[in-house]
Amino acid sequence: MKRSFLPFSMGILFLILVGCAKEEQPRTEEKIEKVETMVMKVTDPVCDMELKKENAIHAEYEGKIYYFCSEHCKEQFLKDPEKYSKTEKVIDPVCGMSISASGERTVEHKGRTYYFCSPGCKDKFEDKPEKYIGK
Asked: Where does the pLDDT of residue 37 fall: very low under 50, low under 70, confident under 90, or very high at 90 and above?
């Protein structure tokens, strides 16, 4: 009994046609950009909140893009961009978080300025500063 190769040939032809009909795959650069966007985190220069880049609101200043957690932070930044764009990073002595030295929450103690990420950390420091100095 002779077998027909027609079903087999039709199957191969179908696979070739389906393969050709697929959408063109994105280039490697596009794939990398998509992955970076999905996992990249940014820090709001106004409140120091860390958030996913894809969820952030943004504004451009002097050719650099800044990311914000809210319209309020974006507005604060745009009122005085110099204040937020050139701030150095410091460590909150209470919790160890890296934050901008923006002067929003500070305490002067023995001639030195300490910066805090939240009112809670600031209050803890003010209650017992010696506990956190030199940490």
From this structure: very low
